[in-house]
Each structure stands twice: as C-alpha cells, then as structure tokens.
TrEMBL record:
It holds the Pfam family SBP_bac_1. InterPro entries: Bact_solute-bd_prot1 (IPR050490), SBP (IPR006059), SBP_1_CS (IPR006061). PANTHER family: ARABINOSE-BINDING PROTEIN-RELATED (PTHR43649), BLR3389 PROTEIN (PTHR43649:SF14). Residues 1-25 form the signal peptide. The keyword Thylakoid does not apply. The keyword Transport applies. It comes from the Bacteria. Belongs to the bacterial solute-binding protein 1 family. Keywords: Signal, Transport. This is Sugar ABC transporter substrate-binding protein. Gene3D superfamilies: Periplasmic binding protein-like II (3.40.190.10). It comes from Streptomyces vietnamensis. SUPFAM superfamilies: Periplasmic binding protein-like II. GO terms for biological process: transmembrane transport.
Length: 446
C-alpha cells in the first residue's frame, strides 16, 4: 500500500457545476453503470486477477482498511491519496473528470456533496455490482443519501446522527437541568449567561451544515430535486421553528461569537465557557484529542426536541465512498468500497474511532456497552444509536450544495454580525441559490 498527499490546482466552484450539467447531457445510462451490461459485475474475477486501486480520501481510518484489504487480496495494490479535504477534493475530482485523465478509482464524498456527482452521472451506479444486497445493512439517513430509485451511487462509510454534548461540571455548578426541548434550551442559555456572563450555552458564527441539520430535525425540507428540476424554499414550518428559536439566542447574545474548530473554540470547550455542542456522533474522538483537559466534565444526552415528547433527529456530517465513471478498475474499486464500508472494514474503522452507518454494528452489544472514560464512563453509544433510528429519511440536498454552502456566510452569516434577521438571511441564501442554479442550467423554483 502506498500513501500520498497530493495538492492539485483548484478551479472555481462555478466551473464544477457547469461541468456537471454538461456531463448530464452526454453521460451514459446510470442503470447499467455505463457498461451496457444489466447483469452482476464479476468482482470475484477482478480480485483474483488483481491490479491497482487508487483511492482519494482524507479519512485516516482507511489506512488500516487498505492494509487489511491487501492482506486478504495480495494481488491488489491500494494507493491512498489525500487530494484535499471536502470541497478541495471535489473540485480536483471534477477537474480530473473534465480532463479525461487522473481520476481515482474510489473517492470519499460527503453526503451533502454527492448530488453534484450523481446529477452529472460522473459516478458509477453500484447496483449492478451487487450493492443492492446492502440496502438493509445501513441506517436510514445514510442509505437515503446514497441511493435514488434503483440506483446506488455510493456506499455509506460513516454517519453523524446528532446528539447533545454538555459540560456537566458547568451545568451542576449553576444548577442547570439538561434541556429536553429547544424552549428549555433557550431558558438554560439565559440562566447560564446570567449566572456567569463569561459562559455561553454554545458558540455560533454561522455554519451551513449546523443550520441545515437543525432545520432537518425540526421537520423542514427546504430542498427538493427531480432530475434538473430543483426547489429551494426556506419558508416551511420546520425552518420557521428553527429561526424563531435561534433568533432569540442571537438577539439576546446568548451564543459565543466563536468559530468552530478555531483555537478559541477548543479553549472554550476546555474551560467551560462554551457549555454545549449539538452535533454528530463522530464528536467524541475530537473532544478526547482536542479537549483532553476536560475529560470527565462532559456528558451526552439526546438532542433537544422542537415538540415536547418527540424523538426526532437528523444527520450532521458523514461520508460515503463512490466509484467515478472514469475509474480504470471499477470491479476492484467496488470490491474495496464494499470492504471498507461493511463487515471487517467497517469494524476496523469503528475500532479506530469512526462512527458506524451499519445497523449490525450500531445494534451490537459490544458497541452499545462501550464505556467512554471521557464522559465519566457513560455508555454514550446507546444515545447515538437511538438517535440514528430517529433520523428523518426524506431529507435531500441541492445538486450543487457545495456551492450553496460556500456562500452561506455571505448571506445568512450577516445575521450574526449585523441587524439582519435569520429569516432575511435565509431568504437571501435562497435567492442566491436559485439564481446560481438557473445560471447553471437547472430549472429552479419555476
């Protein structure tokens, strides 16, 4: 196995979507994976023959997976390449596809970004390779993100069912009860900040992923896509629930003006001045490594609810593995993708700290009974697994969500630094997303 870190010249995101639509017009039929064969692909024969599989991914747990795959199939060489994280890799991938050379056999693609590749028919339909047999192997949220009708465009690698992380030491000091609803959350925010003006219930400077995840949990479904027909509507009831609550926090200055993943953010989580996080179940490893000094202070609870007594949840983060149409060794690429996302490969990644998208692992006694020293011995996986069961499965992203997220702070972000209201910011985001989509050849809100 070889591991490389590669940096490529990055084109404009506008070019990415333009390329996507041009590919849609001339792409091969996704129903047969572009091969003209309706039958199962001979993956076993490809493994016996061997060859090289190039994998673009930034996820560190894949290193061990690649080693194990090569041990099991000694004729296969896996080359891991870090071509950049998130949108940097997506742009590099689109550029390679457009150039007709240099594309990997397997690519890590986050769920929110997968649409821009499926609409372009630039990723392989994995159903003819046997992927349909895994339909019940994954939890609803991730599986919903990777398939459409009978086509399966990727296999889920991990997931991010949301949970509520809170600093128990801070809560106990100020006699704050763990909120079970978002109304109680606002009350807790007020009580904490009143007790100590240096303490905030959370941080927020505007984050597209966090915003859309909470709208998702509230029942909002602002995006709908049918081929190249797209609807963007942030006027639904779920979005209104979110904006009404979050506007109170902003108006009363109850959230810390600290950007997530910054040094100030880590410091706030460590010293208790940022008292909670509402985020994906992948967070424990980040707390353990980045906020080690607060070990034992933090606990996990279910996400507060928009309706008292409800159990709704949403995903925040998570990635899949897809096989580009331009892959040279598609059968081998599928074999690695399947290995890395199911069975032994999934178990290996979980052991390294990844959060599973596989039902068997989420339901296993060993997983559910795992005690987290960081959370005072709490069996936090039980909360995460329950959250995964309650994720709304009818959520969808824009086929150009990568671009939409890139302009979030130019629109909604103004609500955090000016008198602009969240509803107005979301309307500006909607308008900009509609215009961009129409400019790129989609039919949006028409």
């Amino acid at each position: 196995m070889r591991i490389h870190t590669t940096r490529r010249l990055l084109g404009a995101l506008a070019v990415v979507s333009a390329l996507a639509l041009s590919a849609t017009a001339c792409g091969s039929d996704a129903a047969d994976g572009g091969s003209g064969s309706a039958g199962p692909k001979d993956v076993a024969a490809a493994l016996a023959k061997g060859g090289k599989v190039t994998v673009w991914a930034w996820e560190p747990t894949l290193k061990k997976v690649a080693e194990d795959f090569e041990k099991k199939y000694p004729k296969v060489d896996v080359e891991l390449v870090n071509a950049g994280t998130g949108d940097k890799q997506y742009t590099a991938l689109q550029n390679a596809i457009a150039a007709g050379s240099g594309a990997p056999d397997v690519a890590q693609v986050e769920y929110y970004a997968l649409g821009q590749f499926t609409i372009a028919k630039s990723v392989e339909d994995l159903a003819p390779y046997g992927a349909q047999k895994h339909a019940l192997d994954f939890t609803g949220g991730p599986w919903n993100a990777v398939h459409q009708d009978k086509s399966i465009y990727a296999l889920p690698m991990d997931s991010g069912p949301m949970a509520f992380f809170y600093n128990k030491k801070v809560f106990d000091k100020h006699s704050i009860k763990v909120p079970t609803t978002w109304d109680e959350y606002v009350d807790a925010a007020r009580a904490l900040h009143k007790a100590d003006p240096k303490v905030f219930i959370a941080n927020d400077t505007g984050d597209a992923g966090a915003t859309t995840s909470l709208i998702w949990q509230a029942g909002g479904r602002p995006y709908k896509t049918d081929g190249t027909d797209v609807t963007v509507d942030f006027g639904d009831e779920g979005t209104k629930k979110y904006t009404a609550t979050w506007q109170k926090l902003l108006d009363e200055k109850l959230v810390a003006p600290v950007t997530s993943w910054s040094d100030a953010w880590y410091k706030g989580l460590a010293d208790g001045s940022i008292a909670t996080l509402s985020t994906g179940a992948w967070m424990p490893a980040n707390l353990s490594s980045g906020v080690a000094s607060a070990s034992g202070d933090w606990r996990v609870a279910p996400l507060p609810q928009w309706t008292k007594g409800a159990k709704a949840s949403a995903e925040n983060g998570g990635s899949s593995l897809a096989v580009p149409k331009a892959a040279k060794n598609k059968e081998l690429a599928y074999a690695f993708t399947e290995f890395a996302t199911t069975g032994a490969g999934a178990s290996s990644r979980i052991a390294q700290g990844a959060f599973p998208a596989t039902r068997a692992d989420l339901e296993s006694k060993a997983f559910l009974d795992t005690a987290f020293p960081y959370f005072g011995g709490q069996k936090a996986n039980q909360i995460f697994a329950e959250s995964a069961k309650n994720v709304g499965t009818d959520w969808s992203y824009l086929p150009y969500q990568v671009y939409a997220n890139s302009i979030f702070n130019d629109t909604v972000g103004k609500a955090y630094v000016s008198p602009t209201k969240l509803t107005d910011g979301l309307k500006a985001w909607q308008d900009a997303s509609v215009k961009y989509g129409n400019d790129q050849g989609f039919t949006v809100n028409k």
